[in-house]
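Hello again, I could really use a second opinion on something today. I've been staring at a protein lately and its backbone has me curious. Please have a think about how the structure follows from the sequence. I owe you a coffee for this, so here goes:
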Amino acid sequence: MTRSKLLRNAILLLGSIAFALSPAIAVSAAPPPTRGVKITPIGHPTWAPVDFHLFSAPIGTAADGYAEFSNTQVALLPPPKHVVNSQLGGPGPGAPHLPPYDSELAQGVAALGFHEGTRFSMKEFSNGMGIYLVWMNVPAPGTIGSSPDFLSGPIIGNSLFPISNAGKTFHNGKEWNPNLGTFDVLALNQLNPPFNVDGASHFPIFYAENADFGPATNGSYEFHITSTDISGNGWKIEAHFAVAP
């Protein structure tokens, strides 16, 4: 199996993570995307990506199957609010906690001291380190229904899942890694055993890239990702960063 497929498989296992929103508290207005990130709606989605972050963190190597990719996810969304679910392959619903959810990843990045920005060194892009793009999806406005944390509140309904994600990386305007990651996010009631709920209030997406998956070259890089629900509505996400010696 190629190194690209190893990371893609890790993303397939770890990217499909859904959470629940506490009732009786309105979702806060989403902040604008972080510097370097541009989002464009596809159709008329009733959910939205928020809390974007570009940062360098451990990703692992081909020799260890990019195990640090999983460890970094868990570190960003730790217990007790998020609990590792073996079926999801990463953090799942944990202890009930109150919204808003547009800063959970920000808190994780800050607590871990990861270098966040749009300019990185080659050292931060190779030898077990990678550039991450992460975000959280929330109802916007969503629908009202049950989740693991409440009987009635704003959710992304089960009927919109699976939500499909597909990504590529470009270098200096040319396709660099066509296999960044393609995966579906399942509804909580599609798990085995299923959660007996109407939907999820928020779920994270994790992508990462490093020099293993193309020529290790300085320059301008771009994540190009589409995220769409079963009705075809969703978001186009572009994130720009640069790598220097």
